[in-house]
Amino acid sequence: MFGRRPDGRAIRGIEPVQKIMPYIMKERSDSMTMYEETFPCEAMDAYIKEKAAEGIKMNYMHILIAATVRLIAMRPQLNRFIMNGKIYARPKIWMSIAVHPTLEDGSIDTTIKLCFEGTETITEIAQKLNEAIRKETVARQGENGTDKLARLLTFVPSWLIRFLVNLLMWMDKHNIMPKAVVELSPFHTSFFITNLKSLGISHVFHHIYNFGTTSLFLAMGKEKMIPVSKDGEVVQEKHMSFGLVSDERICDGLYYALSLRQLRKIMKNPAILEEPLEKRVEDVK
Length: 285
Fold this sequence. Notes:
It is built from eight helices and nine strands. It is of the alpha+beta class. The strands form two sheets. The chain has a six-stranded mixed sheet with strand order 2-9-8-7-5-6. Strands 1-4-3 form a three-stranded antiparallel sheet, with no helix packed on it. A hairpin with a 2-residue loop joins strand 8 (216-230) and strand 9 (233-247). The longest helix is centred in the middle third of the chain and has 16 residues, at 158-173. The protein is globular and about 60 Å long. The model has no long low-confidence stretch (mean pLDDT 91).
């Protein structure tokens, strides 16, 4: 309303029905769709073992994050968000993830937010993620910007916190949220991810926040053995559980379905992520 956003540009070249949907489903909580999947682990395990022999530490989380970044780079409608009834396209790909220094009760989590161009290889993404996690856990000294902002709010009365949060949401709605706040906020992101495999439990369907711009929330869970048909026989195969909650207003069902088929294809052959993407596909104007 009052200016351009630092995290996206308004899209005009969209179908009339899609343009109307944000006015019918006004909040992300109105428009959440849930998708459940399992990814076979055989190819991922082989890839992780191959990288370990080269001295490169890799795990399922690295593969899923790199696959999602690549998917968004190729399928730009997944990188949209809704604000004040308008559909916006992000200029880059942002990821948020909460991490804990330990997996013990009482461990205080912090949130990491990283930015990607979308052309990176899986090795580049893994290195960037590992360094960010290291800085926020074993090498951490003091609070990061997000934690400082959250702690600052706790020093004021609850009514003032409510007022400040509502003020920030109003500013965000009218495109006058300070750029520094948008950059710090983990809720202004292309996708949020939670690694429940590390906690030894299956995936969940995590809500997408009304505050901020998150359109995709991914949850990866513990592996499990499931029956599958191979060469006419039913065998037990190890699969990683996966849950996705998305904002259905950013693209239509067909686009989502084709995108999820592409994600499954990448997860079944993570080695393709070693080749950089020549150029990120741009959204419509």
